[in-house]
Amino acid sequence: MYPSPSEWTFSSRLLYRGARLGEDPEANIGRDIDRVNTGNLWRELIKRLESPAIDGADLRPILQEEGAIYVEGVGKTGLDISSKSEPWRRAYFEAIMGAARSAECLDGWVRDTTRNIIFPLEVVIGPSNPQPKPIPLGSDPAPLEENCVPGSEKPEAFYMKILTTHGFTSGQRLAAALAHGDWLDFKGLPSSAEEMYDWALDIAMGALPLGVNNVVDLNTGIINADAKHVSSNILAATTALATHHARNNNLASALPIYLSILRARRQLSLAPAPPPVERKHYDNRFGGETMRWLLYEVILSTPEYPPAPPTGDDILLRTPTCICEEAGLMAHVGEIFFASSYQASASQESTPKISGLSWTRDAVELAETTLASIPEGDEEEARIKCNDCFEVGVTNWKYMVQAMLREAKAREQELSETAKKPTGWFWGSSTSNVDPADDVSRWEREEKMVDLRMQDISASAKAEKERRRALGIETGVLRRVFG
After folding, report:
1. At 481, is the pLDDT very low, low, confident or very high (cuts 50, 70, 90)?
2. Sign of the dihedral through C-alpha 321, 324, 328, 329
3. Residues forming a β-bridge with 79
4. What is the pLDDT of residue 233?
């Protein structure tokens, strides 16, 4: 379980596996992830990997003969790790990102230097907190303000370490930039977040082959209609930028980007069909052959570190996973149309809410159709994404229909009350061409249809859980436990 680079020392490999185990939701069912412990493990691992006497031989500082560059408010910049192997660099990246995740969760926490214990800031006793919250029963006593220091380094320190390190792939640096931008958005710093998303787009564009230009308009983030070299990094950077605009109510900038991403995805070339996967079948009876497999392949074998994933710089192909991501984008566009008065179409007959409903319905249909077309046991990533997109789309659809039903009932009530009021001789009573009762009936019928889809989701979720459980037993759960 959780294979690590074979060139690491034994203690570093233990720290890596302990941190991965501590963050694994399946290993922490029924309890919260201990971010204090995982953060300590990740930081200790980073120290060992950067130590020339342990696992950091041949690491070099950048722009300096000795020591590291320190940036005020950010921390130490990265190192030159280009001399290390790809598994070493990739696992080092995982360690820094893990430390950043823990630092985000510990933001606002302090460490009592007298006891080396982490506490939330609101329980600290001191002048800056005149009304501290009480400590839960059975916990350690609250710390004094004069004994406290920040509980962890800032997340920015870890993200900038990745962005300033020589030797990471463009995909890894892009992931750090997008995570940093998301964190800045969470902290209520939209201007700083937008600068980080622009940096992420520069990273994606800078990794394209020489001579490839005019893929994205850097001023707006819109992918050009005639762009030929659209990579997964380009799509990730532009999607994050559009989400940032939508999150900060800049819907007029978000929607054109989303639409250009959808256009680019639909123009991708279809990926060739993958070769059939041969699965080994073992006798479940504990005979001689099964015992030899258990001994050599499960207990005595050392799991290999997984092969390197794609860098994200090549032209993306249209796979079932891409189609599921397209359905998710369509659901985002539907949300934007429904929640705003922005209208991209020149037609005056449809309202933004009706357009949002239409996009959402199409997203649900695309996710459902794609999910049904995936062969059993293949494209697990696409199957998971399609399940998620289908569930999110149907949930959004239900909220939209309920909102439209409430509005229709309100109009019906308003017209009913107006009809009861006396009218003048000269003007008579006003009539409407649309029967409000028909409008209410329409949305009630659609609400029932969505409820049926919700029942399908519940049934498919149970079936999916059983399928994964059966698949795990068939492929050998012991390998997952001992590997």
Report:
1. very low
2. positive
3. 61
4. 94
* pLDDT of 354 higher than 80: yes
CA dist., res. 199 & res. 206, Å (int): 10
Prediction pTM value: 0.81
- Structure token pair of residue 365: 């249909």
What are the residues whose beta carbons fall under 8 Å from the beta carbon of 418, sequence distance 6 or more? 430
**374 vs 295, more confident:** 374
Q: Please count the other Cβ atoms lying within 10 Å of the Cβ belonging to residue 409.
A: 15
**Of the candidates 396, 395, 398, 436, the residue with the CA atom closest to the CA atom of residue 419:** 436
Nearest-angstrom CA–CA distance, 241 and 260: 12
Question: In this predicted structure, what is the pLDDT of residue 232?
Answer: 93
Q: Which two tokens stand for residue 81?
A: 């790790």
How far is 106 from 86, CA to CA, in rounded Å? 30
Alpha helices for 224-319 (secondary structure H): 232-247, 251-266, 288-293
357: Cα within 13 Å, side-chain hemisphere: 17
181: Cβ–Cβ under 8 A, 6 or more apart, which residues?
A: 193, 194, 196, 197, 200, 240, 244
Answer for the pair 86, 6: CB distance below 8 angstroms, yes or no: no
Torsions phi, psi of 468, nearest 5?
Answer: -70, -35
- pLDDT at 121 > cutoff 80: yes
Spatial contact of 45 and 18, defined as CB atoms under 8 Å apart: no
| Helix orientation angle between 10-23 and 35-50, rounded to the nearest 10 degrees | 150
Q: Helix or strand or coil: residue 81?
A: coil
Please tell me whether residue 243 adopts helix, strand or coil conformation. Answer: helix
Phi then psi dihedrals of residue 4, to 5 deg: -130, 165
What's the pLDDT tens digit per position in 3-42? Answer: 899 899 999 999 999 999 999 887 777 778 888 899 999 9
Q: List the one residue out of 297, 293, 217 whose CA is nearest residue 261.
A: 217
Q: Nearest to residue 241, comparing CAs of 255, 264, 221, 223?
A: 221
Residues 403, 391: Cα–Cα separation, whole Å: 19
Among all chains, which residue has been given the structure tokens 């539907």? 334
Query: β-pairing, 75-76 with 79-80?
Result: unpaired
**pLDDT value at residue 174:** 96
3-state secondary structure of 248: coil
